[in-house]
Amino acid sequence: MLKVLRPALGRLLTPVAQVLARTPVTPNALTIVGTIGMSAGALIFFPTGHLFVGVVVCTLFVFMDMLDGTLARIKGTTGKFGAFLDSTMDRVADAAVFSGLAIYFVRGGHDRVLAAVSLFCLVAGSLVSYAKARAESLGLTCDVGFAERTERLLIGLGAAGLSGLGVPYVLPVGLWLLAAVSAFTFGQRVLAARQSATALAGAPGDRESAPGG
């Protein structure tokens, strides 16, 4: 959904990456530091109710994590392991964000329903990413999705930040919205994978599956 903004964001990050390219900093180091910083920000500040501060910290490290791909292209060090590490660390950071919110609702927010919604967002987001990765590993086309990771983080962190500034009801609304669009996106990708599998098989109703799913 926000793919149209990526070229502009790339132009914004390129000068910073060019400076970093003249240092020993590696793309994988940026990925790891960004994940650690984002996870620490979410797990330290969200459970204690410091939502706005937590969002500011997470956002700073999100931009650091986004630099890794640009730096890799400039240094000419793009590779499969870097892509694997980036995707894996994204799942860790996402888990920290929504776990932090779930802990906040259990400990300080006194709302176990929203704690459950936060965990649903965590699981649904992981399923959205897994569906695409698994489909592509099987040679299927699955490049669809109303709410990819960028959109999910924008909704989740945006709602948490506004709630931390005192805007009423925005966090519950944001989480319920995120749960809905994540489930919808997962359905989109399952349908796209089925259509791709059917097209490859040359006949409808293909039920062939690979082990290890």
> Residue-averaged pLDDT, rounded?
86
Runs in which pLDDT lies below 50 for 5 or more consecutive residues are 209-213
Query: Considering DSSP H and I runs of 4 or more, what fraction of the residues is helical?
Result: over 70%
CATH superfamily: CDP-alcohol phosphotransferase transmembrane (TM) domain
Tell me the total number of β-strands. 0
What is the highest CATH level, the class?
Mainly Alpha
Major pleated sheet: none
Strand content: under 5%
Q: Which overall shape is indicated by the principal axes computed on the Cα atoms?
A: flat
Topology:
Elements: H1 6-20, H2 27-45, H3 51-75, H4 80-109, H5 112-137, H6 149-164, H7 170-201
Helix pairs in contact: 1-3, 2-3, 2-4, 3-6, 4-5, 4-6, 5-7, 6-7
Summarize this structure as a short list of keywords or feature phrases.
213 residues; mainly alpha; Four Helix Bundle (Hemerythrin (Met), subunit A)
